[in-house]
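ok, trying the design again with the full structure, not the truncated one.
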């Protein structure tokens, strides 16, 4: 696996002029942020050795190198999910490659369901912690010592200084943001009312099908993480309605400019 990671990193390094300092992962309906990147190079996942292929609508499947907020960045326009049938090592493979390319910070976005009664559809939520309900973990199996320790600490999975800076940016730009806990589940079906209630009872504010494995892999390698969710539907009793993936994408698209402002200015501050 380490050889695959290094081979892919070497391939990408041969294609770019500037080493990225920030990695970005863009979720469902959130790929438009790449329009703000001064692109140096765009590659389809299918053209990158050892990369999986994104199979979900709303995930373009491109890796983009360029500048955003005055920093060299590498952005995933679309991610890989456990529910697509990929093992955890494939889900987090691009994060490990980004580390080998030299990133110092990782920013992630997702669309998710809100279970906190005070949240509304279209709200942004800064993630300050997570609960892993995938039933799996990208660090299972033999540890790759070159990447990180066998038992990585997760007491600060989401970087407090970046969270504080994001709140400051949101205030300056009159952007309403929530802050809370993300529960990661396998999917792909959306949750039943009882599952929504369970997730809320155990301490989560939102529930989604991504982000957690990527953050675990990043923290294993010592990369500080910041993540932001767009509340695309509500799993609150009395407010649960039938939701399609198209609905999720539409809400994400509408809220994306606000998230783009936070991401761009946060990267500028790093």
């Amino acid at each position: 696996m380490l050889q695959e990671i290094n081979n892919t990193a070497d391939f990408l390094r041969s294609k770019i002029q500037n080493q990225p300092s920030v990695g970005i992962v863009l979720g469902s309906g959130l790929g438009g942020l790449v329009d703000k990147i001064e692109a140096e190079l765009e590659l389809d996942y299918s053209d990158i050795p050892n990369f999986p292929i994104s199979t979900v609508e709303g995930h373009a499947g491109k890796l983009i190198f360029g500048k955003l907020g005055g920093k060299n960045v590498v952005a995933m326009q679309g991610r890989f999910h456990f529910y697509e049938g990929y093992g955890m090592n494939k889900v987090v493979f691009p994060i490990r490659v980004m580390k080998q390319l030299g990133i110092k910070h990782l920013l992630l976005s997702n669309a998710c369901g809100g279970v906190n009664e005070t949240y509304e559809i279209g709200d942004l939520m800064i993630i300050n912690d997570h609960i892993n309900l995938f039933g799996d973990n990208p660090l299972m199996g033999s540890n790759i010592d070159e990447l990180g320790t066998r038992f990585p600490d997760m007491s600060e999975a989401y970087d407090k200084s970046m969270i504080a800076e994001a709140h400051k940016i949101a205030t300056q730009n009159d952007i309403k943001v929530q802050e809370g806990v993300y529960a990661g589940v396998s999917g792909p079906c959306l949750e039943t009312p009882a599952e929504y209630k369970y997730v809320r009872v155990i301490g989560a504010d939102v529930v989604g099908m991504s982000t957690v494995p990527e953050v675990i892999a990043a923290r294993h390698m010592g990369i500080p993480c910041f993540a932001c969710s767009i509340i695309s539907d509500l799993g609150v009793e009395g407010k649960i309605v039938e939701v399609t993936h198209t609905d999720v994408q539409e809400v994400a698209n509408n809220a994306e400019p606000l998230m783009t402002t936070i991401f761009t200015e946060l990267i500028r501050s790093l």
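Keeping the full-length input from now on. Residues 2-269 form a domain with the Rossmann fold fold (CATH 3.40.50.1580).
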